[in-house]
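[worker-b] picked up task from shared queue
[worker-b] task type: protein-ligand structure
[worker-b] ligand name resolved to magnesium ion; SMILES cross-checked against name lookup, match
[worker-b] sequence length check passed
[worker-b] input payload:
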Amino acid sequence: MHWQTLDTWIVVAGALSAVSCALLGNFLVLRRASMMGDAISHAVLPGLALAFLITDSRDSIAMFVGAGVVGVLTAVMTQWVHRVGRVDPSASMGVVFTGLFALGLILIVRGADHVDLDPGCVLYGAIELTPLDTVFLGGWDVPRAVVILAVVFVINALFVAVFFKELRISSFDPQLSTTVGINATVMHHALMVLVAITAVASFESVGSILVIAMLIVPAASAQLLTDRLGSMVLVSAAIAVASAVLGHAGAMTVPGWFGFEDTSTAGMIAVAAGVMFAVTWVAAPRQGLVGKLLHRVMVRLRVLQEDILGVLYRLEEYRGGEGAGLSIAKLGEVLALRPAFASVAIRGLVKRGEVTRTGHGYGLTRGGREAAARLVRAHRLWESYLVKFLNLPPDHVHGPAERLEHVTDAAMHEALADRTDRPEHDPQGRAIPPSP
Amino acid sequence: MNKPSAATTTNASAAPVHPRASLAEPAPWPGAPKVATGAEHPEDAPLSIHDMTVAYDRKPVLWDIDYNAPQGKLIGIIGPNGAGKSTLIKAVLGLVPMASGKVSIFGKPYSKQRRLVGYVPQRESVDWDFPVSALDVVAMGLYRRIGWCLPVTRRHRNAAREALDRVGMADYADRQISRLSGGQQQRVFLARALVQDALVYFMDEPFAGVDAATEQAIIALLQELRRGGKTVLVVHHDLQTVETYFDELLLLNMRIVAAGETGEVFTQENLHKTYGGRLTLLDQAAEAMARKGVRR
Ligand SMILES: Nc1ncnc2c1ncn2[C@@H]1O[C@H](COP(=O)(O)OP(=O)(O)O)[C@@H](O)[C@H]1O
Ligand SMILES: [Mg+2]
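[worker-b] inference finished, payload out:
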């Protein structure tokens, strides 16, 4: 990989665009309006074309005004089609943005003589060309696209920072927001105007496909990683920057591994963001796939350990004395488990000091006996409860009680005992251990 | 509950006058409305609705609503599903447009009286997976007072924490709201209304899906608000508890069936009118209007 000034500018342009999109994207994702970003970034096309046709130039100001107008128009028209046409919001969005996009294409093709705009370029952008068109700024040759994107980034960052509280309330609870004087519809439209402007600023460099990806993917990843709005916004921005850097580095190196030339940086930025999303989705601590699986496994393990305590307790009860023990193989047999599982569970119990080695295998410690008594008490109280209140026959209550005993906390213990009049024996006549 | 009642049918413009409403509260700021006068002048009532009709698209869901709420009462709004209870509140708060009519809060339009009004929307109306803590949500009740673009400061957070404490949720202040139970979420909403420090409250089904302990906590809080001279309008579903909870009732089914003191209007006859099938004709007409595009 041979990094040049050129590459730095490409990354800067990509990062500015990605962060600008990601900042706004948080609120689209949270409002469940991700589609709106898609809609607007397509729908701005006729705005651009009209701006070209009217002003007969690539004047940036006219372009941004055109984009802003179309942004609001898309939001308003979508709402209108939804209400008047009585179709659901996403369908009405589809109607509006495909309609406007088609109109834009027609305008561009019809006015081809006047409009210096290539539809292909709008979709994919030409980030590799951005360093070629420069302006002289403070002693530097700065790419024009970087200047425009920097301005848009500053606008978006200020918008999110200054109106943070207003964005939070209007996204979370539009109704309350409107009643306290922060009109949620106005906030929504302001957001849409900025999405449109950001889309236009990004078209030439990174293209509309990347805009759509960056509006959604970093915010969606950040949502999995955080549970406060402020941190979500910051994390999404970090992911956007990382996508730009990794994307460009990837575009320079990855194709080489397979014997190809460089590939499109814009495409690779989207891929990088996608990969990061996939990783987060799998590995996010609480909401990720692995996190959830791990949680499930831990719960299973704990239930298993409690079952082992229960078996050992009942064994002592049966033999009429402490110190009874079972081998791992025997436990596995009783609980219908593979010995490997049983030994993992036992190891955990030994570590917690609830079970210890005895002559013939493993037996309860004092602490373990107390824990086991609580479980068995819960089990037998539940049996009494089910017989009393659900009129289940006594031989049908073991199964449900077996599951309920694992979720019974101290308060439920008390309530159960109260409702069943503190019985001393369960429906099968076995003694219920006294409450500690 | 079977008392015959002549004085209380459709039209509530003969608004109940409340001699007992004489809770003298110090005015919360200079020029505040006289809160101690009750509803002798409907225009000064905490809530006054005149000839309101509300339609979604062209289908009217509320017809000719006339209502004056008395000061300092717990007022239950009851009626079957789809009766327009939520719509009534939203129309009053300017969340859905009125086809016709006039609403005033202490004699002035709502847009001028926002600081006097607290709102608790239906719990399902928001996304509880939203990345905010219980404290963040409660602080939202202060946003109007904080003002545009200014940040939530420690002082505001303390006020929010205090409100959470009042609803027994102080220990959950920093918890993300998806990790609260339904009852706890409802308490958070209530705490948010408390920090709004309003004179009139609108609560949309605060008892829906909460546990018995939360229901008791909420009702205790409502009574505390009433002691402070506040007027609280509550959409409620459980007819069993209506008589114990509310001083006043508004029976609603597309129009006002009856309004007034609970003892007088909570009758078999009115309930039958509210919940019975007597409005199907009006409903059909509304459907037909919507279908044919007739404007009311
Ligand atoms: N946004 C809406 N658009 C169209 N119709 C609506 C809308 N919201 C409510 N409705 C209709 O208005 C009627 C009253 O609704 P609502 O006020 O929610 O009733 P309630 O709160 O009494 O259950 C219902 O028939 C409902 O279907
Ligand atoms: Mg409702």
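[worker-b] attaching auto-annotations
[worker-b] Residues 212-227 of chain B form the longest helix (16 residues).
[worker-b] releasing lock
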